[in-house]
Automatic annotation (TrEMBL):
Stretches with biased composition (Acidic residues): 20-31
Taxonomic lineage of the native organism: Eukaryota, Metazoa, Chordata, Craniata, Vertebrata
Pfam family, one: zf-B_box
Coiled-coil residues: 73-104
This protein's name: TRI27 protein
Amino acid sequence: ERVLEIARRLSRGAALAAQEEGEEEEEEEEEGCQKHREPLEVFCKEDGALLCAICRESRAHRAHTVLPLPEAVRDYEEQIQARLQTLEDARDKLLQLREAEMRRNW
């Protein structure tokens, strides 16, 4: 039960953080690059940041691996789905163990 409660708390916290981050990203996307006022077109894997064409060519990101935005979205969606499946499997196992323990106690 303690593990499940901790997992619930973490998932609530992660959901709130993701929601806040999503709101910030929406604002960034609407405005584009803060420095250059250009549209954000690529994703820097090393920094985990959206970049415009000018930022992409800057010294700070020139040597970094970048992906076109749709490809980065697809990659991260796949990663999230895989991790979600792992968590759901672990939750199911915990629930089965809990149920078995409850039956044993009865």
